[in-house]
Amino acid sequence: AHLVESGGGLVQAGGSLRLSCVASGFTLDDYAVAWFREAPGNHREGVSCFSSSDGNTNYADSVKGRFTISGDSAKNAVYLHMNSLKPEDTAVYYCRASSHCDISTYYYNPYDVWGQGTQVTVSS
Length: 124
Fold this sequence. Notes:
Elements lengths: L1 E5 L2 E4 L4 E8 L7 E7 L6 E7 L4 E4 L7 E6 L4 E6 L8 E8 L14 E2 L3 E6 L1
């Protein structure tokens, strides 16, 4: 079971990016898929989560109204659409497949699947 993130890059403040999280070896629809991010010197923090089983989504307060999470069952993928990017959004973004959509804190769970991360850099 693997997750691969892509779509990161360098963008100016106010710009947009779309991150992709593609699964292989398992079906993402069977899981809740979350995006976390980790900036240098900071703890890994939850950004957003999507559960295809009930259509539930949630977002960290810091990204509400700017980021949108969505899924594509046919492509076995989940996306994070990021608009109005700010320099403080700069981080490595990771996707996680888990049994729940709790993004309030990061903790290790051996049953979760994580991707390798993709760098997002927002210049001022």
